[in-house]
Amino acid sequence: MFSQFLQLTLAGVAQGCVYALVALGFVLIYKATETVNFAQGDLMMLGAFFGLTASTVLGWPYWATILFAIVVMAAVGMLIERIVIRPVLGYPTFTVVMITIGVGYVLRGVVTMVPGWGTETYSLKTPFGEGVIRFGGVVLASEQLATIVLTAALCLALYLFFRFARLGVAMQATSQNQLAAYYMGIPVQRVNMLIWGLAAGVAAFGGILLAPVAFVHSNMGFIGLKAFPAAVVGGFGSVPGAVVGGLIIGVVEALAGFYLPEGFKDVAAYVVVLVVLLFMPSGIFGETVRKKV
Fold first, then answer.
1. Handedness of CA 182, 231, 120, 70 (dihedral sign)
2. Which site among 131, 208, 269, 293 is 20 to 30 Å from 23 CA-CA?
3. What are the φ and ψ backbone dihedral angles of 135, each rounded to 5 degrees?
4. What is the pLDDT at residue 82?
């Protein structure tokens, strides 16, 4: 009984890692520009297609496809910020939100029109094989273990980047106070563009990790609807919160799919959001902002 619970929990952690990577994109962009990018799931989908192309058409090895997808999507993210988002910054939040939703639809439409991509479903080969790893009575697919390990490695790399790299520190300063960062000599607009590139690159990484489990198709970006609650649960604006929120949503979803009636799994993420916000309106790691009148 306990091994079954542990089995479901580990499966949920693996799925939650993908939610966490997409949620990280939400948080990075929101911290820098106070903009919610609802196209984050579709950026993940596009990154998975670029990885698929590098693997099947160019014949590149798995690790090269990851690097290729991250680099290309970073460029796409920066391009979106420069052409679409920057001109409307300062407009009402509703305007920016609608634009990001529109960008998502455009990306989905473009993918369906590209020869070789279209509306078909594809599988992406990985070097992890189809084997399983046993821990006592618990069985974990090698692809799930790889997802957990690679997500942990990326989170560590991001922590070191924001903690020690000059650019990472500049990004943190920009997210804290753009005006102060500008007066300190930080090129705020350029940093914001790089943050969009970083968020898109992280999303591409998540798309390639998700590909062996959910396959590559034009609608895989809808997973962003699950990652958004993860960002809210963790506390919108908190990088560690995005990771924790993703893991919570993944585990709750896995347990709900097994122990609760059919259909509850699909709404479990939003039930978690409601419960968390009832007791912690800013999320688990969110900062409470009070206004005095």
1. positive
2. 131
3. -120, 90
4. 92
